[in-house]
Amino acid sequence: MNLVTQLWKMFNVTRRAGGLRSAGRMVADAPRYIKMMKALFADRRVSPVAKSALVAAIVYAISPLDFIPDWIPVVGMLDDLGIVLAAINFFFGAVPPDVLDEHRTRAGVQPERVRVRERRD
Questions:
Q1: Structural domain for 105, as ranges
Q2: What's the predicted TM-score (pTM) here?
Q3: Of 118, 99, 108, which is closest to residue 41 (Cα–Cα)?
Q4: Cα(47)–Cα(44) distance, rounded to whole angstroms?
């Protein structure tokens, strides 16, 4: 796919997720999300594999070694973002729902803000 197609897809995803207003709310709620993530990392009920995947994705994002070099405009940063978002999705999918609800409530994150796809076993 070409760059224009990728950018158009990103625009549509952002629009469907609530647009810039929704992104602004995410930034304002960042301290709560950080508190929730710290608590989930400290919880022994969360899979070490899920924790490792998230840490590995963050290390990849800050590492100078990439599949697509960061000096390439837009696309260079998008591969990092995509990998981190996939790892976050995997992490939340691996957390037992009751544990996620417990930590979400303690951190003050509204339930509709953290959506997790149901796992199919």
A1: 30-110
A2: 0.68
A3: 99
A4: 7
